[in-house]
Batch of 2 targets.
Target 1
Amino acid sequence: MSHPLLWPKAVESRVYQKKIADVAYEKDTVVILPTALGKTIISALVAADILKRQKERNKNIL
């Protein structure tokens, strides 16, 4: 997975996780997946996207 706010190769992301994260960024979402399928990874991707986009808009998150 490549994201400017995440360490390279720190997380092995799956295609379905990225797709779910993209949807979750755009609208309120409840992610229901079995254990060990990456709910935490999905939330990290969403959080990283929010931080990146806010930084691009010259906004700070406290």
Target 2
Amino acid sequence: MGKHKRDEAEQPDDDSWEIENERPEDVHEHPEEYWTPDAILKLLKAKGQARIQYKLATRAINAIAEHFPGFFEQDSEFPLALDLGCGVGFTSDILIEAGLTTVGIDVLVDMLAMSGTRDAVTRNAKRARYHRVLASATMLPFRGATFVLAASISAMQWLKTPGEVHGLSTELSRTCIKHACVSIQQYARSSDEMTSLGSAMKRAGFDGGILI
């Protein structure tokens, strides 16, 4: 993740963060250019990457519980969570463990198909606890007021334009119930980029909790 540094020679209002290495979303225009079947296969075999994803997702769940006490004790028979950019399902695993039936969306056909090789995905799908959908976060194919929680770990940095951020904001505002929670972890390039999504969601009418 970028470290917050300021070069004294730069303008005082320069808010950009130093990024030590080129990131996939900076090199490639679209995620499918980076996430080839070979790359997805490596991800499925990378235990270290799985641990990182589990850690980040667990941290997101704990932050929601801390900032919004009682959220996970809501009286809802079938609480639904949305995993944005679900990949091979690591974050969805944690959401399901937290008691939420989860819908995972991704724009990559190969990612969704190859995630089915994971035992956790197969098991939770058979229990009707996990559903995978090919869809974009900027155009969600769900009716309004469906989800109690929306989460995304290390995926939303692929949304690069103000139009895409606006699309995500309006779609989350539409598909989340009143007082829902949204938790998004992304590798922002600046503090402005980190806060822009939350501001856009508020402008779109979202009245729930936002953690970014």
